Amino acid sequence: MRFLEVALAAAGLHLSIVFARDGEQKPLGVGPALGNKKHPNIVFILTDDQDLHMRSLDYLPLIKKHLIDRGTSYKRHFCTTALCCPSRVSLWTGKQAHNTNVTDVNPPYGGYPKFIAQGFNSDYLPVWLQEAGYNTYYTGKLFNAHTVENYHSPHVAGWTGSDFLLDPFTYMYLNASYQRNHEPPVSYEGQHTVDVLAEKAYGFLDDAVESDKPFFLGIAPVAPHSNVKSALFDGDIGDIGDVDDLAVFSPPIPAKRHEHLFKDVKVPRTPHFNPDSPSGANWVRELEKQTQENIDFNDHFYRQRLRALQSVDELVDGVFARLEANGLLDNTFVFYTTDNGYHIGQHRLQPGKELGFEEDINIPLIVRGPGVPAAEVSEVVTTHIDLAPTILQLVGAPSRADFDGEAIPLRKSELESATTSRHEHVTVEYWGFAITEGKLFGEAEHRLYLNNTYKALRIIGKSYSFYYSVWCNNEHELYDLKTDPYQLRNLLHPTEKAPETLLGIPFTKVTARLDSLLFVLKSCKGQTCTRPWQALHPTGDVQNLRDALTSQFDDFYVAEQKRVSYDRCELGYVIDAEGPQFGTDGLVYRHGARWDEWV
């Protein structure tokens, strides 16, 4: 970590210190929350499956008014696992999914029961905030497999007040079940779920005002997720013969007042929308070109998503109206983001997520609050792993040594400094399945793809922008997004002619560096996740990809380093399937033994 921030709480103040590359300590400023005289409030709005690259934010005028025009948008913000539950657990713990081992939406590899089994119910953000003197409130979707049967086994910890959406009704827009505090679930059949949520959020805001303590309020509408009629499930998804027996997906359902909107809007017709030639790797490359009937349905699906988001737009407006009416706006930070992105038609894909393409991992993040520049667009690389450290820093609470991320720069001066000092990489990882959420139109299409496990790296510098991945069948992907922003040309696919050079050096030498970086990141812990180059170069002479490209390191990367590989595909994080591992002592490990003891 080029910045190591230490928060010292004393008399309501904290001191932030930056350790620069040369080790010099530089104070950032005194006082909680960027210089405020009192601890700030936090409102955190978390939508479900909202896209950035299909321009959903363009259709949300109230979010533009309150957040985009009055706050900072983080253009290069990424989730690290493009699936609801793993992404949310990572967000609230500050840990990569390979360190939470919550990698799915259902047991045995994920969901609320796995969150409990991993010990996080007493060790995640709301618990830490309460320890810092905050009241904490939450309404909406927390995790998948949090159900009408297990909500009390045990109750979710860390919340002063809560009202959770529960499975199997979480994604039923007109038949949601909510469960308040320790009370039994209540069904809201016939009422639109986001309207129900809005009233609950406003109620918790009233409770927070009355308490006269600093507060955190989480608001998690299900929009624009697909409408899903599902059954409770406690088995292994690999045992399912037909996924429709588990869940029936359909387009989201907007509130009646919004169902007439956007009649002529279509999914943006970008170059990678239903392309003439296949792209990607693994099962994605085998998809057929979509028919016009298919495209027409997917355009309808897209319009329904935009319509469902209008209720979220109104909810945000209501939150800001109440913050302003109570005199809280000047001392409240409002975060707006989503758990993962979404694709419809790109790369011939049916509606869904779970992949490493930009549509699925590059997602909205907007922050407004005291000291945060208005109408700013930041180019710094940030991830969901950074949000828990950011919030703890804002409230003046101590950071945690086991965080895999680091606080996001919020002030103008911090943003400017971060353009040259912040890390440039994102660790992307996924295990298990991909589900098609729209209709199936081609005979060769499937609802469920089980071989969807991969590790990937997204890296963005001043002169380069790459996505590199290794799938569990050991297929590889590499996209140069500077020249191929829509990821249509996989430079490592056998049918593609790879360039002789990248960045002015031989192509294979660049891929060797990328693979070595992913080799560290795919099993990193703590500061190694933000300082992976130091694991490869302990002397500190390499800070980024450009530094690593120096010819003096050619033998080290091309000849000496082990490569990212899998032994087999698994539906969850099974360590002995994931090939050699990079040890914390800098040695290469394979399944717990040193590599040189294996070969």
TrEMBL record:
InterPro entries membership: Alkaline_phosphatase_core_sf (IPR017850), Arylsulfatase (IPR012083), Sulfatase_CS (IPR024607), Sulfatase_N (IPR000917)
A GO term for molecular function: glycosaminoglycan binding
Record-linked Pfam families: Sulfatase
Record EC number: 3.1.6.1
Positions carrying 3-oxoalanine (Cys): 84
Enzyme class name: hydrolase
Signal sequence, renumbered to the chain: 1-20
PTM entry text: The conversion to 3-oxoalanine (also known as C-formylglycine, FGly), of a serine or cysteine residue in prokaryotes and of a cysteine residue in eukaryotes, is critical for catalytic activity.
Keywords tagged on the record: Glycoprotein, Hydrolase, Signal
Example of a GO biological process term: phenol-containing compound metabolic process
Domain Sulfatase N-terminal: 40-396
Presence of the UniProt keyword Acetylation in the record: no
Catalytic reaction list: an aryl sulfate + H2O = a phenol + sulfate + H(+)
Family according to the record: Belongs to the sulfatase family.
Database matches in PANTHER family: N-ACETYLGLUCOSAMINE-6-SULFATASE FAMILY MEMBER, SD21168P
Name the UniProt record assigns to this protein: Arylsulfatase
Phylogenetic classification of the source organism: Eukaryota, Fungi, Dikarya, Ascomycota, Pezizomycotina
